[in-house]
Amino acid sequence: MTQEAERRPARVVVADDQTVVREGIVMLLGLLPGIEVVGAAGDGEEAVRLVTELAPDVVLMDLRMPRCDGAEATRRIRAQHPGTQVVVLTTYADDDSLFPALAAGARGYLTKDADGDEIVRAVHSVLSGEAGLSPSIQRRLLERLADPRPAAPAAAPDGLTMRETEVLVLIADGLSNQEIGRRLHVSTATVKTHINNLFTKAGIKDRAQAVRYAYEKGLVRPPAG
């Protein structure tokens, strides 16, 4: 950041589809030093439009919004307006929310239990070229980097998502639904949903077929022997 940019407040747009939450965030930011709220958006489409009109320094971006979700809005903002940084501010810290947002170009990621000081630090961190991540998100990233799970292929077969492919690989490794849930830090009900989805997409009827499918598609390799 230039010295001039350091002296002036960071110009921020808030994007959240819940009116009460959005207004609460705007009110909080108005009390924080070094922050100037220049606009508020109710969905991703409006967020992209406001960035085009206002050229803010940072967008505080919710993820799950109608018309255009936060990850897609982040991708478009970073592609069209590289001078604007994005800090995600969301309720969700699961892998399916975190990693697509970071892949889309978000430089910061906070959950909505963040206090004002954390938000200020994240905003100014991303403007200084650093990552603005909450401690819990940093721990989650370190856990993921240390996780020995095999990586999902870049192009999963039959339209499987990255998470569905991960679940399939773990099924092939012989893990139960409960064990998969613990490994992926999600509930057993979420695991069952992923299994139902991948079974439907791949035309699989049971776990035995799932194992065979995983080997046929090269998602796992037979043990050497």
From TrEMBL:
UniProt KW keywords: DNA-binding, Phosphoprotein, Transcription, Transcription regulation
Segments forming domain HTH luxR-type: 153-218
UniProt xrefs under Gene3D superfamilies: 3.40.50.2300
Response regulatory domain ranges (all copies): 11-127
Residues annotated with 4-aspartylphosphate modification: 62
SMART domains assigned: HTH_LUXR, REC
A Pfam family hit: GerE
SUPFAM superfamilies named among the record's database cross-references: C-terminal effector domain of the bipartite response regulators (SSF46894), CheY-like (SSF52172)
InterPro entries: CheY-like_superfamily, NreC/VraR/RcsB-like_REC, Sig_transdc_resp-reg_C-effctor, Sig_transdc_resp-reg_receiver, Tscrpt_reg_LuxR_C, WalR-like
Name of the molecule in the record: Response regulator transcription factor
Protein species of origin: Streptomyces violaceus (Streptomyces venezuelae)
